[in-house]
């Protein structure tokens, strides 16, 4: 059984890597840019859609408002990037927002940021892969309706790749992102050219009209209109995730790390702004209509739309309008979008286990998340992320508009606390800096972070205010639950550490007075003889064989056999009026401890090692119970003396069977 | 957690009984009769129904054939009883059919009988309690439709009573059976009187007409008619179960055991015949109509029957016709029928665990079924029976006509093999007996058993032939699976016994050459110090502390602390390029064993004892894996040195916390 699972693991994951392989060359800027940008850039695959379909609730006319919403989001992006360029110079170690919040605002703020980021990393995978699955469906319409399966397949592939430690090829990771930027830029330029010359086509959905939601009968007017625009802004701010990637990965950059990270951040902001705004303006120009539910919310010539209409994402419709429906350009855009979305998810497959490992080292998560697996990845973290993402995908049927409601909350909690931490950081710096020119620079930096804090806090309030009832409550709940678990676990580890720390009263050289060995005998067979000889070999001060008399017939047989074999160990029969094994044994041990409290009692238990799973059910049950029970007795050591049954040989190829060390009777001491 | 489950068990089951309580006074004949008859007599609660509703497939006229079918069944009953009276005299020890088949036909026949009986004991509970639930519903029509819940409640109550060891009151068990016999006899006598005076009423279902099944358009004619009569006979033979009870319980009877058992058998046959035949004749006289599905198979004045009609069992309808619908007599019959059905199931709750315990002692079932629980019942057997019966009840929704299709197969397999065994037994006796008069008696006995064998074999063929496709295949499958499991387990136990038996090459006094102690160190904390001092107390020939270098930072911290504390034990660092713990440790142990093959290696592993379930998830995972892995290494003893965390105190009230025996440093050796 073991060996089958082992073999499966070897096939999927490959042979283990040696620890030395961890050392890697630092990452050059021109490779870092695409790799660190994938997450932020990938959001143009779904963020424009979200803005437009939220506005579409107020009808076709309202959708023309989308480029303005996009512009607002980009302003926020640029402010965040400017303030992050400050942070990265102050904290160039790669600890990211978690470190900034912990150091400046205390460990509870750090835990909050960590919980928020963990939740959002899971959502990055769920949203990116769900979105990618819709692009796959745009290319292969036969898969329509099976998006959850497609997305699950994507997560599983990424999981296996990450467990294998593949996807570390820098060039392989950078190329698709550069290609994606290139192709989208070409598309936008062509689109601009066509628009200028008046030859721009229309999107497949241009002929439809949008049916406004009954809640918005007069378009974007009144308070309801303002709230809808805020909601569009809030969902569109999904475009802001991934900005934290460079700051969390400074440490793997080539020197000068902080300056390179700042440059990468600036370029990332530039590309994100151009691509997002370009896409949103052109989408309006080719009259893209996207809605939540096409069959209900779209009309064609006053009647229902064709039954076989599949609503493709905005980027896909744009490519169709500019390159043509079955053209190379169209498929190239789809394929590269899927690649960049996978890269975004892949970024989370690095960030989540990395953060989890940091947290485990600090005692906020179980230690299992700390250790590297066979291929040097944090396997347990990778698996946890993968399982959580798949659960989310199935919970929401890979539906991006629903998943996006949960998204961004975590990132903005983290942004906001990190900016607050930076403000405190500059305040402390100011107090220690007498030089006026340096003080002026610090003042400027602090102003930038204050601006960043105000903006991210405002976005957080907007996000929570407009989306809490639409699903964001689940993200908040997730963050809260994670926080509570991490906090409880940390306190547990701290308690245990205190309890186990060696203090001056502990002596490293003290020994128990004497050792009293007890050998548990059920019937006189080979395993008992072995347990006896092992117990005697440890030369205890006193040794006793113990029979618990739960079945008088069996006890008498045991005693008879004992006498017949002339075993040179006294045997004690413990009465058991209630046919129990543990209770009389423990009573006996306590009476020994009462008589000589400083003695150590070692209980030798013969145990079978079986090969087939069902054999475990018919053997060792009593031994197991006794062992568990004895664990709670102070001053008792339980020594298992294993006896391998013949069947155990088949399941373990290693080692010879029962090659007992007592083969030669001449060795008697 | 432990203590909560313990408390629940105490409330349900009560305080344990001492083993001495097992000794009981022998059972007098006048108490044995009702107790041993309950199972056989209870079948008049459902057997007449089954005969009539099978015949009803051929229409109303066919139902008048039912008393004749009942007569045929009673003839079989009397032959079985006559031959059983032979068996009980030859095998008066209470081993029953299992013993007779094993001794005379070999262990495989015995195993077959045992498997068949176990299956039928489960079915006795399922059928009796399901039938009882319909009588409860006849008294409380509001429960209609919830028969499976009522039946489950019945099984649970019986289970708890049997686990408590209650229901051993002889008088309490005997009284309801006597009362039942009395009330039914009174009812039959009254019915006969009314019939003679022409004042006999009619049953609630007398006004309905039966719609014949389309398969039987001309009533009981042709081959189809013959087969239907055989099927009615076959389902009605459920009345024959329970006849084996006296022979399986001879040993608890008062002396002379065999003669008393024979008398009980004769009286049991007499009562069963009178009650069954009386019920079936009177049921025709009051024109009872019972069918499988009343709404489909019954008509009233050519139209559908009233929608709220609930079909009560035959005995209930008879009581209603003779005593009146809401009379004391009616409710008395219902209540006593339920009591006798419960008694029948209760009989199985004795027989099943008893047989299972015999089988476990002989190595055909897991040893857990052999031991008596707190209240001296075979608790594991009781629970197994209970679970199996509840599964059957829910599988068939407590529907007696469906369950009965599975029933009787096992009993007749057992009857037939036991009769065959008796024939062989008499043959052997004849060969050893020269005395002519004794030989004549043996010849007579053998003739009786031959007649019994032919009859039971014929019934078995009829049962299988008419019911195999209706559900009996499931019983056959159950018997076959049980047989295979028991046979495999027996062979396993025999193999292990052979493997573990002590032979002349084993020496009871040989000892390993030297003991090499290894103490596994992860970090230098109190549990490690304790493991070290315990290991040193056992005065090994050689002792080593072992650090596996899976994490170089941690290893260095450990070594530094080791030096700082001045621990007087050498520490060995094992390299672990693949960050594993077990593999380097096992490699190290093997190299020790290579150098000195006759050494015993004892690995001391510090282990935490935790109190809360989730703590088990964050501690000991590595220790567990290492222990499991070391079990497969020959010549290695694993000694767990437990350290109780503070939290473990709350879950176990016993014992003081970590009262370590190394408190006094003056005890240094």
TrEMBL record, chains A, B:
It is found in: Membrane. The keyword Phosphoprotein does not apply. Residues 650-669 are annotated as: Disordered. Residues 650-659 have a biased composition (Low complexity). Its main location: membrane. The chain crosses the membrane at residues 31-48, 60-84, 105-129, 135-161, 173-196, 216-243, 264-283, 321-345, 376-396, 402-426, 447-465, 471-489. It is a multi-pass membrane protein. Pfam families: AA_permease_2 (PF13520). InterPro entries: AA/rel_permease1, APC_K+_Transporter. The keyword Signal does not apply. Keywords: Membrane, Transmembrane, Transmembrane helix. It comes from the Bacteria. PANTHER family: POTASSIUM TRANSPORTER KIMA. This is Amino acid permease.
């Amino acid at each position: 059984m073991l060996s089958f699972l082992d073999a499966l693991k070897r096939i999927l994951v490959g042979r283990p890597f040696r620890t030395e392989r961890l050392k890697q060359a630092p990452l050059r800027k021109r490779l870092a840019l695409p790799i660190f940008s994938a997450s932020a850039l990938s959001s143009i695959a779904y963020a424009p859609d979200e803005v437009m379909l939220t506005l579409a609730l107020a009808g076709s006319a309202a959708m023309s408002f989308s480029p303005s919403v996009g512009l607002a989001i980009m302003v926020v992006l640029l402010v965040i990037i400017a303030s992050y360029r400050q942070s990265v110079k102050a904290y160039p170690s790669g600890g990211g927002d978690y470190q900034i919040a912990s150091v400046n605002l205390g460990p509870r703020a750090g835990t909050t940021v960590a919980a928020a980021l963990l939740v959002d990393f899971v959502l990055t995978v769920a949203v990116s892969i769900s979105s990618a699955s819709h692009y796959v469906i745009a290319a292969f319409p036969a898969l329509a309706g099976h998006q959850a399966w497609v997305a699950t397949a994507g997560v599983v592939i990424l999981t296996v790749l990450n467990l294998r430690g593949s996807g570390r090829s820098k060039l392989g990771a950078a190329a698709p992102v550069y290609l994606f930027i290139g192709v989208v830029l070409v598309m936008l330029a062509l689109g601009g050219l066509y628009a200028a010359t008046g030859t721009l086509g229309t999107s497949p959905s241009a002929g439809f009209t949008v049916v406004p939601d009954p809640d918005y009968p007069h378009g974007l007017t009144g308070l309801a209109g303002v709230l809808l625009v805020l909601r569009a802004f809030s969902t569109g701010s999904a475009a802001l995730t991934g900005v934290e990637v460079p700051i969390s990965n400074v440490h793997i950059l080539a020197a000068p790390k902080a300056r390179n990270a700042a440059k990468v951040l600036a370029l990332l902001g530039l590309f994100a702004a151009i691509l997002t705004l370009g896409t949103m303006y052109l989408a309006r120009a080719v009259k893209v209509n996207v809605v939540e539910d096409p069959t209900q919310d779209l009309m064609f010539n006053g009647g229902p739309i064709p039954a076989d209409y599949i609503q493709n994402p905005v980027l896909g419709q744009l490519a169709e309008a500019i390159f043509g429906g079955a053209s190379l350009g169209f498929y190239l855009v789809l394929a590269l979008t899927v690649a960049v979305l996978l890269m975004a998810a892949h970024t989370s497959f690095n960030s989540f286990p990395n953060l989890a490992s940091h947290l485990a080292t600090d005692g906020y998560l179980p230690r299992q998340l700390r250790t590297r697996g066979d291929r040097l990845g944090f396997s347990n973290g990778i698996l946890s992320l993968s399982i959580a993402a798949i659960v989310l995908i199935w919970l929401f049927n890979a539906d991006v508009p629903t998943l996006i409601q949960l998204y961004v909350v975590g990132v903005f909690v983290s942004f906001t606390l990190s900016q607050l931490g930076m403000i405190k950081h500059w305040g402390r710096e100011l107090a220690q800096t007498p030089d006026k020119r340096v003080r002026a620079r610090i003042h400027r930096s602090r102003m930038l972070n204050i601006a960043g804090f105000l903006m991210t806090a405002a976005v957080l309030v907007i996000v929570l205010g407009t989306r809490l009832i639409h699903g964001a409550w689940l993200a908040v709940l997730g963050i809260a639950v994670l926080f509570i678990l991490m906090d409880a676990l940390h306190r547990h580890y701290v308690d245990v550490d205190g309890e186990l720390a060696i203090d001056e009263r502990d002596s490293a050289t003290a020994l128990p007075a004497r050792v009293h060995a007890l050998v548990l005998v059920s019937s006189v067979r080979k395993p008992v003889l072995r347990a006896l000889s092992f117990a005697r070999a440890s030369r205890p001060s006193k040794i006793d064989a113990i029979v618990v008399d739960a079945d008088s017939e069996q006890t008498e047989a045991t005693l008879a056999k004992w006498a017949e074999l002339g075993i040179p160990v006294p045997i004690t029969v413990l009465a058991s009026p209630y046919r129990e094994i543990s209770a009389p044994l423990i009573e006996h041990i306590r009476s020994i401890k009462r008589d000589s409290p400083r003695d150590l009692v070692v209980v030798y238990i013969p145990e079978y090692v079986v090969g087939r799973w069902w054999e475990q059910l018919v053997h060792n049950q009593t031994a197991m119970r006794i062992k568990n029970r004895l664990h709670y007795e102070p001053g008792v050591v339980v020594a298992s003396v294993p006896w391998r049954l013949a069947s155990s040989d088949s399941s373990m190829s290693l080692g010879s069977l029962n090659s007992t060390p007592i083969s030669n009777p001449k060795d008697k001491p």
